[in-house]
Amino acid sequence: MDKFRSGSHTPWVRHFTWGRCFHKPNRIEANFVKSLPDYPLHDHEFVEVAVVAGGTCVHRCNMGEQQFSAGDVFLLRPGVAHEYKHAKSLSLYNCCFDASLLGAELGWTVNDPLLGRLLWSLPLSPARRGTVSLRLGKTDLARAKKILDELCLLGRPDPAPSFGFQLGLLIQFLSILSCHLPEEKPLPAPPRIHPAVLTAIKMMEEDLSEQWTLPLLAERTGLRSDYFCRLFTEIVGLSPMKYLTRRRLETATNLLRRTPPLLIGEVGAAVGWSDANYFTRRFQNKFGISPSNYRARFMRMQHQTDERSAKAPVDSME
Predict the structure, then answer these.
(1) Residue-level pLDDT at 1
(2) Where do the structural domains in the chain lie, given as residue ranges?
(3) Span 232-254, pLDDT tens digits
(4) Which residues in 168-302 belong to E strands, given as ranges?
(5) Alpha carbon of 299 to those of 10, 81, 254, 266, 293: distances in Å?
């Protein structure tokens, strides 16, 4: 979510909404780009997983620059900006899914020792800032490519894809990735699975406008506040209130791009901050830009992009 800030300066970032990348209402999509040139700084409102199938590039995100080649994989949560530089014969798969799946169909993964690290504890940690990178060996790269090829086929408009098939393939794909996570330090024994954490995540995801507090969340899950907070933090990697703040800010960036536009106060209220001034301070503290300037910049970039698209073929995502 940090667009490579330097002081209050935010560089030109191209933003992709789901509808701009995909013309179908599916919540899971995959595609294969046979030859990808250098691609400028951009972010997404959805979760993206990219798998390098061949060639090389320098990938730049808020974790710095890294040379990528066949077998390298990176996962980006919504709002993380990145770009490709010095691409040479680069081919890759993109697997994207709506962030709402994390609070619903994929909510159970928070309690899984491997998938929980891939989707929750690693990308939500302050050190990772929404990004996870890993590397697949030849065998698992081939397995992942086979699953992604199937997901690509299911993205065709005729016949209409089955969400159940897509979700099953997505879970298989993510499970392969989760077996190759970086071992930054010896892992402690996984915390005891507790449904209270999943319940709390679902409640927050379903109604970000609710005035959630730690005591209220603990009461709704039937636990003491101190125990609930410790349990949530051990599993998710963020305290309940820090997780809530992150999701509110991620959602606010999407609401600010809506057409017709919402008032700044309406956006703040929709994510649980009814005081427009307080919402503005929280937003500016995180992104280095006010909500109104963020929207103005996005609309200006959107207009420029639309003008270029009218003169040239429409870009595919990535």
Answers:
(1) 40
(2) 1-190, 194-318
(3) 887 777 789 988 998 898 888 87
(4) none
(5) 15, 17, 13, 18, 10
